[in-house]
Specification:
This protein is mainly α and 60 residues long. It has one helix and no strands. This is Callose synthase 8.
């Protein structure tokens, strides 16, 4: 009985460690994806601003 209890504790610890490591990786991946998305959005908005400025100067 004590052996089963000890084994359960060990498996719970292993599970918690693996789960925390997995969550840290997922969070890092999500942060990376958000950063890439923000950079792409910024580049797109900058490109649109520059092209609209060019359109205005051509019209003048």
């Amino acid at each position: 009985m004590a052996h089963d209890s000890c084994e359960n504790v060990i498996w719970n610890i292993i599970y918690e460690v693996c789960w925390k490591k997995y969550r840290r990786r997922r969070c890092a991946l999500e942060r990376h994806q958000e950063l890439v998305s923000a950079m792409m959005t910024s580049a797109y908005l900058l490109e649109k601003a520059v092209s609209s400025k060019d359109d205005v100067s051509i019209a003048d």
